[in-house]
Amino acid sequence: MCRHLAFLGPPQPLGSLIVAPPHGLYRQSWAPRRQRHGTVNADGFGVGWYAEGDPEPARYRRAGPIWADGSFADLARVVRSGALLAAVRDATEAGADGEAAAAPFAAGRWLFSHNGAVTGWPRSLAPLSRGLPPDELLSMEARCDSALVWALVLNRLRRGDDEARALADTVREVAAAAPGSRLNLLLTGGDTIAATAWGDTLWYLAEPGRRTVVASEPYDDDPHWREVPDRTLLAASRTDVLLTPLKEPSA
């Protein structure tokens, strides 16, 4: 598995959300508190953030562990944003994709992360991949299961689905093709957050009108963190958080 986080709120240094919290993503890379699958998230990390006046986010991704990157520590100290998505990647089998396999994935104004694993990969999703336009399939950033799940979500977004529906329908489609998959997905376009809890933990911290944080696990011991039930879709803005149950795919 992996750990990820999305934030909407007043601009603040990236490090105040990722590095500074006592149980932030930085610490979760070697000592997650609630991770159900895997133990060390050291096979890459990334953060995508939005700058004022620019709808397309910037990204910083690396193939190694977050704690070993001194340049990121400097960047996180001074770069500020009011919207971001960050992730640390679980230790996996060796591959050639390097940082291309590290979330967040991006296209246009969107940032995406997948916390989980697709059972039977890659054979299980071959039928779904054949439904993608060839140019979208060939444009995948990496050859891992998360990249293909992102391609499926992105295809729905480009066809006009809103972010929440694109995630929900993709989760049901992948779960039907690959039963037992863990599909905690996280998506933002800079002004809203959509996420799914499907097989691992998901939490949110909301201060209506000020900030919303959605994360694999709480980064501190604030008592206002709330756990999202499994098989649930979350749709959030700076002012509201809506939870909707997700139905299991039909047999």
Automatic annotation (TrEMBL):
What EC numbers are recorded for this enzyme? 3.5.1.118
In what residue span(s) does the Glutamine amidotransferase type-2 domain sit? 2-251
InterPro entries attached here?
Answer: EgtC, EgtC-like, EgtC_Actinobacteria, Gamma-glu_amide_hydrolase, GATase_2_dom, Ntn_hydrolases_N
Q: Which CDD domains match?
A: YafJ
Taxonomic superkingdom: Bacteria
The alphabetized UniProt keywords are: Glutamine amidotransferase, Hydrolase
Keyword Transmembrane tagged: no
Which reaction does this enzyme catalyse, per its entry?
Answer: gamma-L-glutamyl-hercynylcysteine S-oxide + H2O = S-(hercyn-2-yl)-L-cysteine S-oxide + L-glutamate
Q: In which pathway does it act?
A: Amino-acid biosynthesis; ergothioneine biosynthesis
**What is the uppermost EC class here?**
hydrolase
A Gene Ontology BP annotation from the UniProt entry: ergothioneine biosynthetic process
Enumerate the Pfam families for this protein. GATase_4
An MF annotation (GO) of this entry: hydrolase activity, acting on carbon-nitrogen (but not peptide) bonds, in linear amides
The protein's matches in HAMAP family, at most eight in alphabetical order, are given as: EgtC
Query: What NCBIfam families does this protein's entry cite?
Result: ergothioneine biosynthesis protein EgtC
Q: What does this protein do?
A: Catalyzes the hydrolysis of the gamma-glutamyl amide bond of hercynyl-gamma-L-glutamyl-L-cysteine sulfoxide to produce hercynylcysteine sulfoxide, a step in the biosynthesis pathway of ergothioneine.
| The protein, known as | Gamma-glutamyl-hercynylcysteine sulfoxide hydrolase
Origin organism of this chain?
Streptomyces alfalfae
Identify the coding gene.
Answer: egtC
